[in-house]
Write a structure and sequence with these properties.
The protein has about 425 residues and is mainly α. Helices cover about 80% and strands about 0% of the residues. The chain has a two-stranded antiparallel sheet. Helix 1 packs antiparallel against helix 7, helix 3 runs antiparallel to helix 16 and helix 17 packs antiparallel against helix 18.
Length: about 425
């Protein structure tokens, strides 16, 4: 099939949204993780590793397969569609097998393999494939373009979560594995449409330096300290985000908002998606794109400190003001988490130019892989180690544990701010950009 259109929305924005709105549903994990655990006869802790592995292999596949994206976005987007669709269908089949053979190690390993490894590869390639293409189509508004696509990744949770919950309720006892198979097929079709339409602008030629065989690592070496700074602040921002987002529902129950958890989770997802779009679009108007990270970290530090020093999580159920401070913290962290993602490729292009940007972005996403293994696990360990469990409105919660998580994330946000200030610094023109 040959598509001759050279419209930037048809060949760039819409395909990117189709890809990112599909793979972004990985963040719907909390909707069905407990159902999977009950259905196959394993603890939720054992099943949770599927999500951690999916994020890990997302980052690692992006890091190691970035050159595949750089050379041929059609090949990479096709592999992404196949891996993501096959991973979801395979996960459904192993859940079905686990239901018929309760406690089967084969079922658990199959779910970890399909959801974690196979889907993870689809996530990494699907995430990377549209990014450089969008920056080429929207060269004067790179942040707006990448923010649009990455917002689709964030908005996927808000869109898909109620659909998945409705399918789980409507399909009955076997709904959890049937849902995976149905949606695996739907997302495969969506991603294939995106694959067919996705294309770089006609006449685009890679810079001369790249044509001579320069590697991404060689480009990074022109500013190694800057890259380390970007990698570290990206890693710390994701780790903090995952640490708090993974405890979000429990924190809301702790401050007396159990009845509104579903609605507020959708609101935080909107802040996540909004941060991806508006913060990156705003950064287009800044002389130095790193400024947006200083704003993200400053806002996160202030919001976290206010909840910590007022004891907001422990006292939120009895005070409207403290409850509001906790909600502001969750909204701020979600917006900063999303904005941190959408500004990374454009920040990298400001420092290193467009040469090998897909591969450089892919290497940077290894920070996401590391954070995927540490963020959720770190907060779970803290909550289960510190404080004591109490009952609020019939739910077991640990306010001291959640407050302890905030002490750790506050320290991390401070380190991230220092990286932004002293390692990344301001944008300076490089020889790579002049090439």
């Amino acid at each position: 099939m040959t598509i001759k259109s050279q419209n930037k929305w048809v060949r760039g924005a819409i395909p990117a949204l189709l890809l990112h709105c599909s793979i972004g549903t990985v963040y719907c994990w909390s909707v069905f993780s407990d159902r999977i655990a009950q259905y196959i006869g394993f603890s939720q802790g054992a099943v949770e590793w599927a999500f951690s592995l999916a994020i890990f292999f997302l980052g690692m596949s992006a890091a190691f397969l970035g050159n595949v994206v750089e050379k041929n976005i059609h090949r990479s987007s096709l592999i992404a569609a196949i891996c993501f669709g096959a991973g979801m269908v395979g996960t459904g089949l192993f859940i079905w097998y686990g239901g018929a053979h309760q406690g089967s190690v084969l079922a658990l390993v199959g779910i970890l393999l399909c959801y974690g490894f196979i889907m993870g590869i689809g996530l990494g390639l699907g995430y990377l494939s549209p990014v450089k293409t969008l920056m080429l189509w929207f060269s004067k508004n790179k942040g707006l373009a990448t923010g649009l696509a990455v917002a689709g990744f964030g908005a996927a949770k808000a869109i898909a979560s109620p659909i998945m919950q409705g399918m789980l309720d409507g399909l009955g006892d076997n709904g959890v594995w049937q849902m995976f198979i149905i949606l695996g097929c739907v997302y495969f079709v969506m991603m294939m449409i995106g694959h067919v339409f996705l294309a770089k602008p006609a006449g685009w030629k890679e810079p001369a330096v790249q044509a001579k065989g320069a590697r991404a690592i060689d480009v990074i070496k022109t500013k190694p300290v800057v890259f380390v700074g970007i990698w570290l602040m990206f890693y710390l921002n994701i780790t903090c985000g995952l640490a708090l987002i993974s405890q979000e529902k429990s924190i809301l129950k702790c401050i007396g908002l159990a009845a509104s958890v579903g609605m507020l989770s959708s609101v935080t997802a909107v802040f996540n998606a909004g941060g991806r779009f508006f913060l990156s679009a705003w950064a287009d108007k800044m002389k130095d794109r790193n400024t947006v990270y200083k704003i993200i970290f400053a806002a996160s530090i202030i919001a976290t400190a206010l909840v910590l020093f007022t004891g907001g999580i422990a006292g939120g159920a009895a005070s409207t003001v403290l409850m509001a401070l906790v909600l502001i913290l969750l909204f701020t962290v979600n917006a900063g988490y999303g904005g941190g993602f959408s500004n990374v490729p454009t920040l990298l292009s400001d420092h290193y130019g467009m040469q090998n940007i897909s591969a450089i972005h892919g290497i940077t996403l290894s920070a996401w892989a590391m954070a995927g293994l540490t963020g959720n696990q770190l907060s779970n360990w803290i909550v289960n180690t510190f404080g004591e469990w109490i009952v609020v409105d019939g739910y077991n919660v640990n306010p001291t544990g959640y407050q302890t998580v905030l002490y750790v994330t506050l320290a991390m946000y401070v380190v991230a701010m220092l990286c932004s200030l002293f390692l990344v610094g301001g944008r300076k023109e490089t020889k790579v950009e002049k090439a």
